[in-house]
Amino acid sequence: MDDAQIVALFLARDESALRHAADAYGTRLRRLAERICGDADAAEECLNDAWLDAWNAIPPHEPRTYLFAFLARITRLRAIDRRRSDARQTGGAELVPLTAELAACLPGGEDAAAAADGLQLSRAVSAFLRTLPQQRRVIFLRRYWYMDSVAEIARRFSLREGTVKTILFRTRNALKSYLIKEGYTP
């Protein structure tokens, strides 16, 4: 069953939409949540919450051509929230060291202006990613969206880990330059 058909079931409020979505994407979404949470049980809870969120979000959203991305975003946000919550309760570190890798590239701040600027920043990062060759873009996304390890990325692309680290370093620097050119300051 394709994405449009699954979304049509969601829109018709047919509960079989959840089963079809789970059949199509459940394994990949669970793996994403496990990478972020670091725990299979927590990942399963996040995924269950993500299914409920998807049920409540479709409608009004109609992700007929991007269902996996839609579900992955929901799952990822649930897993990040869970990881942060667990870290607060245990006094542990927040999320993953990956945030430090990108901190030098992206503007920060918790003020209202920074929050309002988030959508524009998101568009700028997306525009930057579209300028990259496919392999560099996928490597960047595998690392910072799917949170794959450098070793996993190296295996996936048959590259040395050092090569992957170099690609990521250069891509982060290029992103920083691009954002500065667009008027953002790190």
Average pLDDT, to the nearest integer? 86
**Poorly predicted runs:** 109-116
Task: Indicate the multimeric state.
Answer: single chain
Largest sheet: none
Beta-strand residue percentage = under 5%
Q: Domain count, please report it.
A: 2
Give the ordered list of helices and strands: HHHHHHHHHH
Tally of strands: 0
Tell me the name of the CATH homologous superfamily of the largest domain. RNA polymerase sigma factor, region 2, helix turn helix motif
Helix content: over 70%
Radius of gyration: 18 Å
Can you put this structure into words, describing what you see?
74% of the residues lie in helices and 0% in strands. It has 186 residues and is mainly α. The protein folds into two domains: 3-90, Rna Polymerase Sigma Factor, Chain: A (Orthogonal Bundle); 98-181, Winged helix-like DNA-binding domain superfamily/Winged helix DNA-binding domain (Arc Repressor Mutant, subunit A), CATH 1.10.10.10. The chain is globular and about 45 Å long. 22% of the residues are buried.
